[in-house]
Amino acid sequence: MRTQAVKTTPINIAGLGIGGLLLAALLYLFVRHWAEFVQYCINFQIYMHRYLVTYLLQQQNHQYHGGVMLVLGSFLYGFLHSIGPGHGKFVITTYLATHRQQLNISRVITLFGSLLQGVMAVLFVLILAVIFNFSMGDLSLSRYWVEKGSAVFIACFGLMLLLRASGWRLRRSPVIRALPASPRLSAATVAHHHDENCHCGHKHLPNANELTGGWRNALWVITAIGIRPCSGAILILVFANAIGMFTWGVIAAMSMALGTALSIMILATLVHHLRERFINTSGALINFYLPQATRIAMILGGIMLLLFALILFSSVIPVSANGDFITAGC
Predict the structure, then answer these.
(1) What secondary structure letter does DSSP report for 127?
(2) 117 and 330 in contact (C-beta within 8 Å)?
(3) Are 88 and 117 contacting, i.e. CB atoms less than 8 angstroms apart?
(4) Dist. CA 156–CA 220, nearest whole Å
(5) pLDDT by residue (tens digit) across 142-192?
(6) Which of 27, 83, 52, 58 is nearest to 239 (CA)?
(7) Which residues of the chain have pLDDT under 70?
(8) What is the distance between the alpha carbons of residues 197 and 146, in angstroms, rounded to a whole number?
(9) 118 with 303: CB under 8 angstroms?
């Protein structure tokens, strides 16, 4: 049988070194100025909320341009607010880095997760403030436990990734089934050029659909993003309900959700292209070991989600009698 050598793409050592130095410098600046960045994001939220409240009052006084500005301002708030620290960006980045999902499906998952976040904020205020007439202190207590619960759910998502990577199921996942039967590879196997057209009777590489975890995994991601209601949406909804403009509060909250969706979809697109660029430029050898690399990436992603959930759980702001939602984050 005629064999072909595996074609590999030469690695630019100098380019990798420069890229590593730049990444280390950015990481150093990120850690050094993290506290200032978080404080700036909080101040920006307060600044934007003053304008949103002003536009809501203008709409109440029949200054209809205030309604237009409320919708546009809420969309801009959601777009810019999602740039700051938050769980949605971390969850979708970890998911796309560890699952070779199709780009359009990734965007749909991001859109639904962001919209669910807006819906959760609406339901939170509708049920507790409108129907049960909770006080601001009770709303803050409820917000406290909702955020604690969302951190636990994100931890469960990370644990699920670890279990999938370890093959802990009666019926093994497609990723695990795609692994070679033996860790030792013969010389003929390595020398043979495997692709979809080699017609040798074996399945060598999992396709994109087999590396995504299926629709159940997508639901995990959507729920992990949307289960934590946006603090900005809760605040504008509470104020809108207090002045009898709850419908406009719902419109503002969903506009925020759409703005957040657009921002995170841009992030998801960047992560997708970076992941594919890395895979495509790493040569045929990395593609041959793609199942093993996917398993390692899922393990690392699961560990990172568990650590992030622990930080999120321990950093929930205390209960405030005045209903302090502004620093709760998204």
Answers:
(1) I
(2) yes
(3) yes
(4) 9
(5) 888 888 888 898 888 888 888 877 776 544 444 433 333 334 444 444 444
(6) 52
(7) 1-17, 19, 30, 34, 38, 82-87, 100, 168-214, 282-291, 293, 318-330
(8) 52
(9) no
Q: How many angstroms separate the CA atoms of 10 and 138, rounded? A: 61
If 0-12 CB within 10 Å is exposed, 13-18 middle and 19+ buried, where does residue 144 land? middle
Separation of alpha carbons 211 and 194, rounded Å: 19
Separation between Cα atoms, residue 200 and residue 206, nearest integer Å = 16
- H-state helical runs in the chain: 13-32, 34-60, 65-81, 87-98, 103-125, 136-166, 174-177, 187-191, 214-226, 231-242, 246-280, 283-288, 290-314
Q: Which residue type does 71 have? A: V
How far apart, in whole angstroms, are the C-alpha atoms of residue 52 and residue 66?
Answer: 9
| Full-model pTM | 0.71
State the Cα–Cα distance between residues 67 and 321, nearest whole angstrom. 30
- Would you state the structure tokens that stand for residue 193, as one six-digit string? 């050029």
List, for residues 107-148, the tens digit of each pLDDT value.
888 899 989 999 999 999 999 988 998 888 788 888 888 888
Question: Cβ contacts of residue 17 below 8 Å, gap of 6+?
Answer: none
**Tokens matching residue 27:** 């990481």
